[in-house]
Amino acid sequence: MTLLRRLLSGIVAGLTAGVVVAVVTDPSWIPWAAHTVVLGAVLGLLFGDHRQSNGSAFSVGLLVGLLDWVTWALTLAPALEGAEPSWTIEVAVSRFDELVGAALFGALAGLTLHALSRWRPPRPEPPRAKPHVVIVGGGFGGVGAARELDRRIGRGLDAHVTLISDSNFLLFTPLLVGVASSTVEARHVSAPVRAGLNHASFLHGRVASIDTQTRNAYVHAGQEGMLRVPYDQLVLAVGAVPHFFDLPGVGEHAFPMKSVEDATRLRNHVLGALEQADLEPDPAEQARLLTFVVAGGGFAGTELVAELFDLVHDVLHYYPRLHGLQPRFVIVHAGERLLPELSPTLGGYAQRKLGGRGIEFRLGARVSKATAEDITLDSGEAIPTRTLAWTAGNRPNPLVQQIMPKPAAVEPTMQVPDVPGLWALGDCAKIPDPEGGVYPPTAQHAIREGKAVAGNIAAVLGGRRPAPFRFGGLGVLVSLGHRTAAGEIGGRRVSGFLAWILWRSVYLSKLPGAEKRLRVLADWTLDLVFPRDIALTAKDDRHA
Fold first, then answer.
1. Residues 6 or more apart from 296 whose CB is under 8 A from it?
2. pLDDT tens digit string along 387-439?
3. Phi, psi angle pair for 81, to nearest 5°
4. How far is CA 543 from CA 321, 354, 452, 538, in A?
5. 29-47 and 96-118 helices, crossing angle to 10°
């Protein structure tokens, strides 16, 4: 829905609800009409583009009406009359009739806006001759490309677009650590893909193979079996998968961090380890259960070890037999310093902060093997532990290796060399940058790569030349737990509590949709007041 249509729909919804409420409450018509127009416009601009159920629309409208009552009836109206605003129970009771009217107005306006946003003029069936663009992968890059092409179709691009993914939601991966550390609910870091598409279609399935000669993708789609999906242009945005380098036991015993299921599994395992340690009579086994190792000292590994440290220490008081014991946290990193993505100064700051809490470092070291009871480093050192979290390596999705002549190699335009009609981006592609390197596999890059590849495909379909991808980056931030962070924004270094506020603000602003932002903000606010949740949501077989 365009901005103008959202605005007009909101005004119509506001006036409609306002007329109904005016019949009941008999206000002054002209001021009331102006009030309903303004409030309806705000409602339309904020929520007119969101697909919701009737219940959600009713709840959102009711909430807006209540906020309007607090803002206008209790605050602005008395101030305009020269009185001092008051929010006492007595004042609220005296304006109860206005509260009923505001609640009724909000609920009716929300439902009316919902009905208007769902209505769309009938469209004729598109001709079969339209080129078909298929996007494989529902991450930042794939969804970004689909939404940009969807927007362009609304503006006249003559094409079909189909997004294929084995998950029907966009996962906000930067907050997976929050799921693992019990600061964010798992369902709050994902957004339904279909909700962001108005013209493009979505196919829930897994691409098994792609025939680049005949331009057909073959998709496992549940009970439908194998589907053949022809395409004219195809975008590979399937991301990367964990790479365990064929190290003995690592694939069987390590916890990767690539999905909501991975993060939830690690959370349950850590909490299960605390439960088991509270019952364990053997001090050696108790120490093993309370030792947590993270492999990989980049952004993901550093944030993970910091948040797991905070999780364990935040809930330790629930386990009386563990009082006085010191859980052990170890981070294993092949580089000579932590966080090579940051400057040496900020990397050193992060290491000092984590080391000051007792977190141990094994720098210049690699995990060589793992068992259910310990891990071994390439130096020969063995660390007794039942928890190994893995962020030390990724590799392109096997589908990429299957169809690309040179795995992950693409041109600056994101076209795959020697394969007409094939594009690749995100974690599964090495996109050259102007300095002779490749762009990093970060969310901010993937989002912009998706938009850029959509523009390039539109250019090719229109007979124009695609443009090389260019993006300088906005900066980097890493959370260090204990309400501290470090990073570089616009060439400036930031650290400490201010960086942590900035980190949370940036990620909150990047979440898809107002609903998810409010839910995550609520999670973070509750985390400031209450201990973290220790409820085990699934059985961990490793502690059976």
1. 331, 332, 333, 390, 391, 392, 393
2. 999 999 898 899 998 888 776 789 999 999 999 999 999 999 999 999 999 99
3. -85, 0
4. 18, 28, 47, 12
5. 50
Residues of the chain with pLDDT > 90, as a percent, come to 66
- Whether pLDDT at 296 is above 60: yes
Q: Which of 489, 490, 428, 418 is nearest to 453 (CA)?
A: 428
Task: Give the pLDDT score at 145.
Answer: 98
Q: What is the pLDDT of residue 218?
A: 96
Helix axes 96-118, 3-25, angle to 10 degrees: 140
Long-range contacts of 343-349 (CB under 8 A, 24+ apart): 343/488, 343/493, 345/493, 346/486, 346/487, 346/488, 346/493, 346/495, 349/486, 349/495
CB 92 within 8 A of CB 74: yes
Phi, psi torsion values for 219, nearest 5 degrees = -125, 130
- Reference 437, options 476, 473, 467; nearest CA is 473
Q: Mind giving me the DSSP string for 354-365?
A: HHHTT-EEEET-
CB atoms closer than 10 angstroms to residue 244 = 21
501, two tokens: 């506020």
Exposed/middle/buried for 30, CB within 10 Å: 0-12, 13-18, 19+? exposed
Measured CA to CA in angstroms, residue 15 lies from 61, 120, 221, 223 at distances of 14, 21, 45, 47
pTM above 0.90, yes or no: no
**Structure-block tokens of residue 57:** 């629309």
Give me the half-sphere count of Cα atoms (radius 13 Å) on the Cβ side of residue 134: 24
User: Checking phi first, is residue 475 left (phi over 0); if not, alpha (psi -120 to 50) or beta?
Assistant: left
pLDDT higher than threshold 50 for residue 126: no
